[in-house]
Amino acid sequence: MPREVNVWTSGWKATGTKVLCPRYTFKVRAEWRTNKSAARQAERVVTFPDDLIALAQAGGADREWLEEELKELLLKVARRLAKVDDE
Amino acid sequence: MTTLVYVGPTSAGLADGTSWANRYGTLNAAEDRPIIPDTIVYVGPGVYRETLTCDVSGTAGNTIQYIGDYDGSHTDGVGGVVRITGSDDDKSATRNSCITANTKHYRTFTGFQCDAVASAALINGASCTDWTIQDCIFIDTATSTGYSTLCSGTGQARWLVQRCLFLTTHGNAQTIYFYHSADVDNTGHVVSNCIVVGGAYGIASWNVGGITVRNCLFAGRCGVAVGVGAALNTGQTMTVNNCVIAGCYTGLVATTTAEFVEDYNNIYGCQLARSNVNVGAHSTAYPALLDTRWFFEMVNGGRMVTPFDLSAWSQLINLAGTSPPATDMRGTGIIGAQREWGALEYDPTLLIESAAGGGMLMANKKGNKQA
Q1: Interface contact flag, A35 B143, Cβ < 8 Å
Q2: φ and ψ at B182, to 5 degrees?
């Protein structure tokens, strides 16, 4: 395993190209408690990639959050493609 | 001449704050007298279930200081933890902050435990300048949208956070957060001699430039130890020196290499050491190898409090479990009605070393058994 991994990213840009990708869907049920201990629950069906696109189009904090999470995922993808962790 | 004001968990005497015998019973009572520049507020050991709202600014050379009197030398003569909490029952969080302010300057907070807020931040200052937060512990941030210390607003400048411990921060929360919706330059914020355990970010900047981080320890799965989340203006930087970063997901993060200067740091055991941060010429990647003697003393009959013991306020004490081991990690049998959950039985007689006298005092002398 690698001991010290550093990465640098640059050249982020929208390429304007759309591609087809498989669509997936699954059900999520969430239960939680508020800080004041009130019980909450929600259910919804999540669809990929539709719901990612919905968050991106929502803009604002939703888009910022999505960009941050996807950036982290894409860095993991780059790392795997580069076989960093195979060393 | 410096004005001295006294606060305790209950009021006494004339309740005008002029002496410990005539102390106020709440932090806000002291603030609302109203407090004036060049004042020291000595806060006695105990629990304060309120949000201190800062209404007044100090001035240069005439700060307003709140001091948690841990050793009791200015208040009750006994000493103990001075705790401000967002909780009313130590089971859930009710208030959003322990200390909050908007455009109040030259304020200093020393010696407090801040814990269990519902959202926002344990200490929350908007467009405040010349704040010092020192010798404090921030523990049990309850919410994913919360912060331990939040410094925000376009008018923010010159915060000094030093000698503080940030422990069991919510896994998705920021710990020390400098934020504004647009760029704020040359703030002169400094964070030094702090320990951060956990949290999504240890120290984070969002559009805030001119922050210096020195001699801090980040341990135990911070998502990012130090990061710049939103790009800084050209020429603005986050500077990190002399820090030890161990076992975090990511060590240092920037949006571009120009905005982050790191050198003389040790980063080890992180999934990602740096992202968009150039490697400092003198930085290293050694195992931190923290001192473990406390552990071996503990499992060999040692009697000292560890960072992992429950406090007297914990509602996890004496909860009924199922088939627990008869003794805890240090070999202690059941104390009280039930064997505590977790690895360590609550033991109010455990020892801690006194800083004032150099001897070993029982925990009930120095904070772990107080009401």
Answers
A1: yes
A2: -130, 170
DSSP B46: E
| Chain A touched by B266 (CB under 8 Å) | no
- For residues A27 and B37, what is the distance between their CA atoms, to the nearest angstrom? 58
pLDDT in tens, B226-279: 999 999 999 999 999 999 999 999 999 999 999 999 999 999 999 999 999 999
From A19-23, A33-37, B32-36, B239-243, the region with the lowest mean pLDDT: A33-37
**Phi, psi of B259, deg, nearest 5:** -95, 0
- Rounded to whole angstroms, the Cα distance separating B291 from B284 reads 19
Cis peptide before B287 (omega within 30 of 0): no
The phi, psi pair for B185, rounded to 5°, reads -105, 155
Coil/strand/helix, residue B31:
helix
Chain A interface includes B272 (CB < 8 A):
yes
| Phi-psi map region of B259: left, alpha, beta (phi>0 left; psi -120 to 50 alpha) | alpha
Please state, as a whole number, how many other Cβ atoms lie within 10 Å of the Cβ of residue B117.
Answer: 31
- ipTM value of the model? 0.82
Tens digits of per-residue pLDDT, B299-327?
998 888 998 999 999 999 999 999 999 99
Query: Other CB atoms closer than 10 Å to residue A65's CB: what's the count?
Result: 12
Query: Residues for chain B: how many in total?
Result: 371
Output the pLDDT for position B45: 96
